[in-house]
Amino acid sequence: MNMRKQRNFGAYWKRALLAVACMAAACNKNELITRPDPDGPNPYVAQVLDYRPAVGQFTNLLPRYEAGDTQQTMNAKALELLESKSPVTLGGYGGYIVVGFDHRIENKPGLCDFRVWGNSFYSTSNPVSGAPAGGSCEPGIIQVACDTNGNGVPDEEEWYEIAGSAHRRAQSEAWYGRAATAGNDVELRRRYSMTYYRPAAEPDAATAEYIRWEDNAGNSGYKAKNSFHLQSYYPQWITDEKLTFTGTCLPQNGVYEQGNTLGQYVLYKFRFGYADNALNTEDDSAIDIDWAVDAYGVPVSLPGVDFIRIYTGVNQENGALGECSTEVVQVEDLHLQGIAIEARDPDLLD
């Protein structure tokens, strides 16, 4: 298979399986689709305060940009997708969405408190016998904010990051050795920054050198455009000539596995603590507010959270599958749903 056909094949599979995973999320037998108390608080997202995706093959499609759309209309479109339990793409590294609720999600000791639905799935065609779970796991890093001053918005000093398994010890990931052997960047990079530059012209055909990017670790390159998605990958309602995102960058979890039908790449699952990483039916997709840490990695104590921000946590191109891009389908308050999931002790990485 030549490279163009291989790229098209991978893009087709990602698009098709994205739809399948979305339907699976909406029909998840372990989720309560109807609210337990229709007169009580809404267990799901009530507002989108900000939606700023990075460059990606689904940007301007999920949700769809139309001429004249503003930041406010795109926020509203993102909320509409979440309300229908349909995926909102965050694009490549750093792209984010900020959501709020009509109540405070309570931090209950010993229990996970909320879950971010994604559209991850595991491949049944991984040729590596005994390999860990993986397929299309595109982890998003989660930040939480408690509105301590009651002003109705998340102030910058109120944000804390959920420290998932790789935040604590990246080497604990079951696929870490495979990724390192494959030449992936397996370092956890804190205070990472990445900038995308608006292309001078919009190509109407697939190209490997499409949108230029560079980071503060001395790396640079291009985001490719594939033949299945020929719209602009640069968010069209944003007028800035460049987009810069700063945060934590996770180890690259996509490993080229010869013989795999999903574009040859398997995107392996992190152990816990991220969005669009584990299946929505699995306990590993649930989040404990007590995993929140400050900028120095010190645990913080929060009574609950009013706002959640999710951003794409990996910077990686995965061959025919394209960029790693987190998708968010919904966020739910587990306590209002009556779902009790025991929170693991993050210091016990068995």
Itemize the secondary structure elements and their pairings.
Blueprint: H1 3-26, E1 47-52, H2 71-83, E2 88-89, E3 96-106, E4 114-117, E5 121-122, E6 134-136, E7 140-145, E8 159-162, H3 165-169, H4 176-181, E9 189-197, E10 207-215, E11 220-225, E12 242-249, E13 254-256, E14 265-268, E15 286-287, E16 292-293, E17 304-312, E18 327-328, E19 330-333
Antiparallel strand pairs: 1-3, 2-18, 3-17, 4-15, 4-19, 5-6, 6-14, 7-8, 7-17, 8-16, 9-10, 9-12, 10-11, 13-14
Written overview of the protein:
- With 350 residues, the protein is of the alpha+beta class.
- It is 14% helix and 27% strand.
- It has four helices and 19 strands.
- It has helices spanning 3-26, 71-83, 165-169, 176-181, and strands spanning 47-52, 88-89, 96-106, 114-117, 121-122, 134-136, 140-145, 159-162, 189-197, 207-215, 220-225, 242-249, 254-256, 265-268, 286-287, 292-293, 304-312, 327-328, 330-333.
- A hairpin with a 4-residue loop joins strand 10 and strand 11.
- The longest helix is centred in the first third of the chain and has 24 residues, at 3-26.
Helix-residue proportion: 10-25%
Instruction: Give me the count of strands.
Output: 19
Unreliable spans: 1-13, 19-35
Strand portion, in percent?
Answer: 25-35%
- In spatial order, strands of the major sheet run 1-3-17-7-8-16
Overall geometric form: globular
Largest sheet report: 6 strands, antiparallel
| Helical stretch tally | 4
Q: Tell me the span between the first and last alpha carbons.
A: 41 Å
**Gyration radius, rounded:** 19 Å
Order of helices and strands: HEHEEEEEEEHHEEEEEEEEEEE
Mean pLDDT across all amino acids = 89
Class by alpha and beta content: alpha+beta
